[in-house]
Amino acid sequence: MQAPDWIASDTPPSDAADPMVSESSTYVMDPPELRTRLDALGLSEVKASQWLGIGDRTIRRWMAGTPPRSAARISATIEALMDTTDGWVDRLSTAAEVEVCHGGWRILSDGTALPESWWRAVVGRAAHRNPQLIVSWGD
């Protein structure tokens, strides 16, 4: 099982693909749902902001009850990442061994950069499904 490439950096690479979906519905997550989704994805408000390419104040204000104008598009992007995450959990659930790191970013095949905290959340869910999965630290 080939894991996404890893880079050591506090911020996503400048050439990372824009993760925002091009079209969205009118659905907007309320603050508790946004928090639940970000927690499930292993994303802090700061890491979510970096991944989405938006200001961290945008997420904080949304958590406080004031969604941004782009909330529907951001909600759709987070939902798309939930689907991507589920796919990675499915793949890792059948793997024998996987490596995680303390920091940095994972680069998916489409060029999207996701923080290592996301990868640790994926690995944690996969290990829950497959207690035989060997998890090692890479850095």
UniProtKB/TrEMBL annotation:
Protein name: Helix-turn-helix transcriptional regulator
Organism of origin: Corynebacterium pygosceleis
Disordered: region residues: 1-28
Superkingdom of the source species: Bacteria
Lineage, uppermost ranks: Bacteria, Bacillati, Actinomycetota, Actinomycetes, Mycobacteriales
